[in-house]
Task: inverse folding
């Protein structure tokens, strides 16, 4: 017994065209996913409020109590912020920074230097969940640290939190580079020092304008919101973190 099924030519060609279109779209998606995974060679982290949480209000409250000043107003003053900015781009070393602070407050630094150091430095604590990821990520990717910071904070953080710095192969700091984020040049220099292309890099920073500047030079950049959000970004790029899952 023989059965004959009849289709109009136009219907058959429509079906063939639709199948070919679906196959093409699937192929494009797979190619793009493979390209994304292949290209990610380097993950760049900001330090403050990404790997180490910090709170400048601790400095304000300590100085307010010690010197009977309005700490909140102090951090808004241009002259004070100019001192900090020059410290963060390496125009001032630690001694010069402390001397300028003593002049600013009208104090004898010999009597207050240790207080200034302690109150300035002791503002950090670990972002445990993100830091736990670093050894795992370091097995597959070059890890880079890029931070607006100063010599006092970095020296203190390295002593107190060695687990942050040990897995990171390249560490780039504003006070050593002579420039700060969001200057696009610091991102360009970081990519050059990492010896990779900008689009091979993922970048996490808690400050939106820094993320925008990094994106402008071709880095795949994301604003840090939470540990869970970092996991989601990594998974989006095919990076499965198999360690701690406390999110």
Result:
């Amino acid at each position: 017994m023989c059965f004959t099924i009849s289709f109009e030519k136009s219907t058959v060609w429509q079906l063939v065209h639709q199948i070919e279109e679906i196959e093409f779209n699937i192929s494009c998606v797979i190619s793009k996913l493979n390209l994304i995974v292949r290209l990610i060679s380097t993950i760049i982290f900001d330090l403050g409020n990404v790997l180490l949480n910090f709170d400048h209000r601790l400095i304000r409250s300590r100085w307010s109590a010690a010197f009977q000043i309005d700490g909140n107003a102090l951090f808004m003053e241009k002259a004070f912020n100019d001192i900090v900015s020059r410290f963060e781009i390496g125009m001032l070393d630690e001694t010069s920074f402390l001397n300028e602070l003593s002049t600013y407050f009208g104090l004898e630094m010999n009597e207050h230097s240790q207080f200034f150091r302690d109150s300035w430095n002791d503002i950090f604590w670990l972002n445990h969940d993100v830091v736990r990821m670093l050894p795992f990520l370091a097995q597959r990717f070059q890890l880079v640290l890029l931070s607006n910071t100063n010599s006092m904070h970095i020296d203190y953080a390295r002593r107190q939190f060695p687990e942050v710095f040990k897995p990171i192969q390249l560490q780039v700091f504003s006070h050593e580079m002579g420039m700060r984020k969001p200057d696009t040049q610091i991102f360009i220099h970081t990519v050059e020092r990492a010896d990779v292309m900008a689009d091979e890099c993922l970048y996490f920073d808690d400050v939106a304008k820094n993320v925008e500047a990094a994106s402008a030079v071709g880095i795949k950049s994301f604003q840090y919101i939470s540990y869970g959000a970092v996991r989601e970004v990594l998974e989006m790029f095919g990076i499965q973190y198999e360690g701690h899952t406390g999110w």
User: Anything to note?
Assistant: Residues 9-39 form the longest helix (31 residues). Residues 57-121 form one domain. Residues 135 and 167 are 6 Å apart (CA to CA). The longest strand covers residues 142-147.
